[in-house]
Amino acid sequence: MQYTLIALICGFFLDLIIGDPHWLYHPVQGIGKLISVLEKILRRSFPKSKRGELVAGGILVALVVGITVALPLLLLILIFHWNVYVGIGVESIMCAQLLATKSLKDESMKVHDALLQGDLEGGRTAVSMIVGRDTKNLMEEGIVKATVETVAENTSDGSIAPMLYMIIGGPVVGFFYKAVNTMDSMVGYKNDKYLYFGRAAAKLDDIMNCIPARLSAYLMILASVIRRYHPGNAWKIYHRDRYNHSSPNSAHTEAVVAGALDVQLAGDAYYFGVLYHKKTIGDPIRPVEIEDIKRANELLYLTAVLGIVILSVVKILILYVIGTFL
After folding, report:
1. HSE-up of 54 (CA within 13 Å, CB side)?
2. Separation in Å, CA 152 to CA 10, 83, 157, 226
3. Are 179 and 65 in contact (CB under 8 A)?
4. Contact, 45 vs 56, CB < 8 A?
5. For residues 127 and 293, is the Cβ–Cβ distance under 8 A?
6. Which letter does DSSP use for residue 268 in this model?
7. Which of 236, 95, 224 is nearest to 172 (CA)?
8. Which of 207, 224, 232, 250 has the highest count of CB atoms within 10 angstroms of its CB?
9. CA 173, 321, 172 angle in degrees (round to 5)?
10. Element (H, E) at 219
11. What is the DSSP letter of 247?
């Protein structure tokens, strides 16, 4: 669509202003329900073997991506055919819903506020809503670390990655990314249940996040320069620890934040009652503190702003060059 850039910029500011109101149905909820329904059907339809689960997981990816992309594409074609201005409005709303900058900040600040009031149980409850690890036994340091890590990681997954894909192909391509990312969060686990069934989703998510994770990291280093959060150490820790995670992409922005804030993140954590031994990211130059959640959010917002500005300029330049030679 030729109005993609306008819709993305409008959607970006719409997300920063209103975020994801709880009363408004979010398309990711629909994607999640679709994944759950198809998983049950496919598990009943294919044998419980390595080959059967790999095939079923591949079909899940094809069906979820196909349906998730087809619906917004058809809707936008019909609306733009009817009225261009209404089409831009609907496309802007789609773009806003694919971004999660404000909602990530809001949810993480609930943890911050609870801990600031000395409400440890409230902090555990709030952080359990935004992380996948077990939180019931976390103390203040562990809660803060988990929150800072999820803000860092989701700077890419929830802001820069969908922004990049929407720059390329509007909300339709953005929904492609969101479908893959949601599948990975639901079935991309390396446990007995999903090791084979979720492999296709996990591998595709790794591929789609390869460039966004690295772009996010460099934008975040630039954000640390602007905010004067130890950019030299952010650069150093990024290049040293960016692969200190089982995922090839997750540690990139975590390493930048750890370096920028002079703290150590990651390390061992419990998932579904099982202890996983994980490498640390960053150096413990100082202990983590509650205000690090707010600092991580400052880096999130600055990174998002830098992302929309730089990607928009690049898009305009590309369109200008294409227009010049055609």
Report:
1. 4
2. 24, 39, 9, 17
3. yes
4. yes
5. no
6. -
7. 95
8. 224
9. 10
10. helix 210-227
11. S
CB 199, CB 52: distance < 8 Å: no
CA triplet 305, 281, 126: central angle to 5 degrees? 65
Rounded to 5 degrees, what angle do the CA atoms 202, 311, 230 make?
A: 80
Tokens for 198, please give them: 């979720």
Q: Which two tokens stand for residue 157?
A: 């997954």
Q: Can you read off the two tokens belonging to residue 187?
A: 């079935």
CB neighbour burial string for 185-221, b if at least 16 within 10 angstroms, e if fewer:
bbbbbeeeebebbbbbbbebbbebbeebbbbbbebbb
Helices 161-187 & 199-208 angle (0-180, nearest 10):
160
Beta strands in 70-155 (DSSP E): none
d(CA 116, CA 143) in angstroms, rounded, equals 12
Tokens of 205: 């998510």
Query: Quick count: other Cβ atoms within 10 Å of Cβ 26?
Result: 15
Question: pLDDT tens digits, the chain, 326 residues: what are they?
Answer: 568 899 999 999 999 999 887 777 788 999 999 999 999 999 998 888 899 999 999 999 999 999 999 999 999 999 999 999 999 999 999 999 999 999 999 999 999 999 999 999 999 999 888 887 777 888 899 899 999 999 999 999 999 999 999 999 999 999 999 999 999 989 988 888 888 899 999 999 999 999 999 999 999 999 999 999 999 999 999 999 999 988 899 899 999 999 999 999 987 676 666 666 788 999 999 999 999 999 999 999 999 999 999 999 999 998 888 877 76
